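User: For a reading group we're discussing how well predicted structures match intuition. Take Peptidase M48 Ste24p. Before you show the prediction, I'll give you the sequence so everyone sees exactly what went in.
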Amino acid sequence: MPTQMPLRRISTALILCFAMLLAPMARAQSLIRDAEIEFALRQLAAPLAAQAGLNMSSLRIMVINDSSLNAFVADTRTVFLHSGLILKMDNSEMLQAVIAHEMAHIANGHLTRRMANYRGAGRAAALGLALSLAAAATGSTQAAIGLAAGSSSSAQRVFFGHTRAEESSADQAGARYMARAGIDTHAMVDVLEIFRGQEALNVGRRDPYVVTHPLPAERLRAAKGLAAAYGDRTKPPNQTAEYWFARAKGKLGAFIQNPSFTLRKVGKKDQSDVAVMRRAVAYHRKPDTKKALAQMDKLIAMRPQDAFGHELRGQILLESRNFAAAVNAYNRAVNLAPSEPLILAGYGRALLAVNTSDNNRRALSALNKAYARDPYDPRMLRDLAVAHARAGNNGMASLATAERYAVLGKLGTAATHAQRAMGLLPRGSSGWRRAEDIVVAAKRVARKK
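Assistant: Thanks. Here is the predicted 3D structure of Peptidase M48 Ste24p, as structure tokens, for the group to look at:
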């Protein structure tokens, strides 16, 4: 997305929903941004998007760091998956069944009709809204419970509460996308079976998926009928899809589960590239940098042209404070994948850590490129603010900080930095207008409280 793309004003109605969701979010979970995981999820989603008539280049598959089982769409271009759901899936087809169902909500216009009276939000604040919605749906929080049980605002229910008719429609469409993409539709039944019986539980004990996606017995029966109609289970899973699923699930688990558990789970005999990657992450987290780098040497020897291996090596070196070596590793990753924004962001972060005038200049260039491709990464925006400050451009530093807080859904704090940016940037410039949009959005929230 070009950096000069103008922001659109956020409508009063949308801001009202945003404000109503902010209150219960002090303990909201965070997004997990990782280039390899997101790339792997895009590989799984791409054949489904094609069948759904959706443009994969405009879709985001994002992971929320939450151990509960949930998946949902909060706008017309973002599918959110909880980390707990990904780790619970046994194979690629089960995860694709979840993605297909959520894509069906987008393709069938369920969210569009719900938001028909709203204009779209600007770049930073738009994802801030989406993240706020995501936070409201996490785990066992009161926001998630109130959302479906009716003890919270109607605005929350508007965004997340699917009707039984919508769920039936999404199941039918999702199964059709899967069948046309050559994916076994019985995987949808396998996913629903995981949640079977939870409707009888107290709402506080249910996983959010069955709270936001009604799961009556007839829905499971209908899913079984769809699976039977589309064929038997004789076809083996797609090996390419299985590979990318293993990479996404393996890396995610290695980073969020106990490293000793990961090492026991992988064992010593498995020498596949995914197993080696998981060991490297686990050793890094223990921490045992020497063993982690030894595993990374093996991984890069197995996949020398894979940018994500070099990126992971750069991350391990950076977090072990070996900054110069981290720059070299990230540089190799950027050369292999020059358009991956999260890799560019990591490269910029490593250059900033070296902290010389030349490296700071190169960092600003890399981070600007990352911003142009993905302006929604709070960590990148934090680094971009540092890079601008070191270059003596305090106005742009304040703007990047404001956009970071807007993306996080903290519009009040964002407005403070945006006002500072407006005082430092040329009036009417692109940066000044971006800052003004944040200030306007924050004022509308304040008026509705």
